[in-house]
Amino acid sequence: xxxxxxxxxxxxxxxxxxxxxxxxxxxxxxxxxxxxxxxxxxxxxxxxxxxxxxxxxxxxxxxxxxxxxxxxxxxxxxxxxxxxxxxxxxxxxxxxxxxxxxxxxxxxxxxxxxxxxxxxxxxxxxxxxxxxxxxxxxxxxxxxxxxxxxxxxxxxxxxxxxxxxxxxxxxxxxxxxxxxxxxxxxxxxxxxxxxxxxxxxxxxxxxxxxxxxxxxxxxxxxxxxxxxxxxxxxxxxxxxxxxxxxxxxxxxxxxxxxxxxxxxxxxxxxxxxxxxxxxxxxxxxxxxxxxxxxxxxxxxxxxxxxxxxxxxxxxxxxxxxxxxxxxxxxxxxxxxxxx
Length: 339
Known about the structure:
46% helix; alpha+beta; globular; four-stranded antiparallel β-sheet
């Protein structure tokens, strides 16, 4: 087999972040070195024989399997990007869920989890005065061992993960005017506004989970826990009821008359309607418009999750530089640890 660079973020996505279309080059920020550079997409978010490993006397490659999965999702990806909206068919949802699940699992960051886990276990054992080498049956993992386990895990679980994601509410979001989405080398980012204490809140099936994957510099795919939108409507209804209750209390205490109460309610009605309309946009086929605050949030997540590289179509790395300096412990992406 000829040595080759094999991508863990597909070229069909990278091409939508080109800084130079003719040369197929992208502008890159390196979290490790705090520097920027431009390179061809064949060189970035890829490694030599990333999908190949040696087992006994065999060289095994998953590259063809990876290519076939990409071929399955590519028509749906291309149509959504071209039309800039969803159709919400079952086939579309299944393919977008597969795209998110496959991209979530295939990256270098996902592979590094095994190495980090082994390192954390070693620290624990040595912290208790022991040695890993004394544990019965233990042997250090080789690069081929880690590759094999990663690729087999991908094969075993990508379908299950896609099914979990397909049960979420999927929608699109536009970049705000003059801004572009970052694309990190670990581009499926998770967020959760709920706090579950020591149990963590970032599992794929955890209530309240949010998943984000940039499709192009201007368009992002999101998958939310189906409880989020009803919760938003519930919060709005609760706020409205609380406001009405407060006004009624004022009327009953003689501090407000009926006419003043009706005026106060009518003044708030446009706000309630506007908020309800905004919530409803998450359920539509067209993208939700992002503002500056949204863009900072989305791009900060790409910085947080990236192992090393982040791409910007407009080479706008001000936020990346600032984030990298404010959170130096995240320069190699999220880390696992034991308490």
